[in-house]
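Input record (Table S2, row 833):
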Amino acid sequence: LETHAASAPDAAAPAAETQAIGEDVAAIRDLILAKLKYSVGKSVTAASPHDWFVATALSVRDKVVESWLSSIESSKRTGRKRVYYLSLEFLIGRLLIDALTNMEMIDETRAALAELGVDLETLREVEDDAALGNGGLGRLAACFMESMATLSIAAYGYGIRYDHGLFRQRIKNGRQLEYPEDWLSFGNPWEFQRPEIVCPIGFGGHIDTETRPDGELRQVWHPGETVEALAYDTPIPGWRGAHINTLRLWSARAVDPLRLDQFNSGDHIGALMDRVRAESISKVLYPGDTTPAGQELRLRQEFFFASASLQDLVRRHISLYGDVRTLADKAAIQLNDTHPAIAIAELMHILVDLHDIPWDEAWAITQATFSYTNHTLLPEALETWPVPLMERLLPRHMQIIYLINALHLAKVSGEPDATGHRLAALSLIDESHGRRVRMGHLAFLGSHKVNGVSQLHSDLMKTTVFHDLESIAPGKITNKTNGITFRRWLKEANPALTSLLMEVVGDNLLDNAMVLEKVAALADDSSFQERYAAIRRANKMTLARLVQQRIGVKLNPDALFDVHIKRIHEYKRQVLNILEAVAIYEEIRAQPFRDWIPRVKIFAGKAAASYTTAKLIIQLANDVGKVINSDPALRGLLKVVFLPNYNVSLAERIIPAADLSEQISTAGMEASGTGNMKFALNGALTIGTLDGANVEIMEHVGSPNIFIFGLTADEVEAKRSQGINGQDAIARSPKLSEALESIASGVFSPDEPHRYRGLVDALTYHDFFLVTADFDAYYNAQRAVFRRWRDKPAWWRSAILNTAHMGWFSSDRTIAEYAEEIWNVPVTPPGRK
Ligand code: F58
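Output record (F58 complex):
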């Protein structure tokens, strides 16, 4: 008896826990069954995997909503300052595993489904990706939303609910074809339509000047056209579900659904024209902007969502605090690039025209409220709008922009160095390419802080695009190096590695990523190395199965998986990678029995539909792969695969299986990169240039554990100023000239031998991205990779040290910096419930 009594507490504790979990599992199972029956309207026997997915999503959503409502309530009660993240893109991907992970319900839900004979992994795969973004900028917005919730910041994301997200890519005969993406066709269980939240959005029309009762003049805008912005809310749970924020996306709607008189008189299509025109605003992500109509639609999208968001947040502020003049104390608005920059003129319009705030005070409120993140230095990507288009579409906003500019130029024209040249550079209006409004300048002037997304990028902003503006506002430019959410990019993408790491660092890894440093002590531990390597091997097997299923190419999981996945762009230099593959191909054929390292080059990424060269690069990767993969002389030593339709979900599969991460942009051109962080965290070694955040990754993981090569940003600038002819570099490098020659002569395009002549000519005579200049350095860096790969303990040591030192790149760290230095809001780190 005594023995029994003494041991009872120990023995009883696990039993009680098991019982609680058992109860949870039973409750979750019953809830899923109820959702299936009463919300989906299906029986267990008739339910498809998609029906089960919806039932499961709705059941976890209930838990999310509980916490969401209390988060909203508590923000109201405590009068907390809110952060508004305005972004034309939110590349959120799938949400089921994300919600289950952050609500800490994943194991119980998996078990509950298993009792019902349903596999959670199958449900994961049937969810459509929410692909409401192009690439890094949109994915960053999604990581930031998750980290803001994790840190209990009261934040709203504002964007557009596109009917069709980023196009679906198919590869036919090696070429990219674009098809509409249709993520909403099966409904969206995560969102709540808010029919009561509708904002009128005006376009065009004219302006009257009226006299106010106090004798001052007021400008009154009478839009010629009005559409409605209808709100849809998606709750965004933070880690451990302690705080839930809202992603509010706007959908465009006509004021009148149809012209009934016209319809009844027989013009059925004409009666719907206004509706089609209005709804086209939220139809597609990034409508082609090579035509004037496309450009106008893009500007309409920008104003549509900026205006709706501003109206909404000002209304909220006034209802809570009664006075619009305290806006900057209670709201911080972050502009994700220049796409929402028109919001600055819109806030001025709201304050000055609608609330009678004097101009100077309105401008002070505006500057104190806004801040702006720049994501690119590429001149062609810095938005400018033709003045005539702005005048026609947004006449009052154009007036406001002119006035902002006049006051700004008046201030600087008194300075001693105010030459015509300097004033032209500082002006909001670019007079040199037709008259155009510089949206970057507008965002800069209307903000109190402007940030770049890596140290190098922020430094370059000061010496290039914002050189002149920085000189009149020293200290306004600040750096906030990007980050990634470890909940998605470690735990959800690589659960096995996460469990192994938690054994070492403890289960608060996802609360405080810096604890990863403890893993460094095990970098040389052979049994830890073995377990780490076994996880990679299993991930590679999974990816190999996926590749076999999708494109029918068989991969050797023991080969080095060398991965280049991101948007296809000349500056990202997929061509440099392909050239190295071609060079090695020729070498293996020449000396088939040297001790080659088996390697798989994996490419994935989309090219903008109108970007001809990028599409040709996709075709080249596919053509090269086709020849190499079917050449028996290679005995499988080299494979080159292009995986179609790259998206967030595919990235989650590929990254944990990568050995080598290609981050090889022309130095000075990649603002930061965030894929580079996802790979290094999961233990791929980086081969990269000193560009964007690669520089800081090197500083953290240590230069012996990363393969850096090539020209630096300064050297790129110096080299370009001497000319960009590639002939010398090609003449100096026999491997490069051979590779170029075989591509140009049609070795990989026998059906059309001259297909790549133009591409090769461009590299030879006009190599703006300095592919030829960096080729030898890249080739040699790849050989250093081979040497490390041969020394397996050294390879795994480097891989483990990458994982160990990547904690700093958590988006929790990035967001904490924004909160403290830009938004002035407190953060509450997550902790155990
Ligand atoms: C990316 N920009 C940067 N833009 O290229 C990348 O270096 C950085 O890490 C990332 O932002 C996050 O800061 C980017 O993704 C776009 O997709 C543009 C959207 C609008 C059309 C043109 C491309």
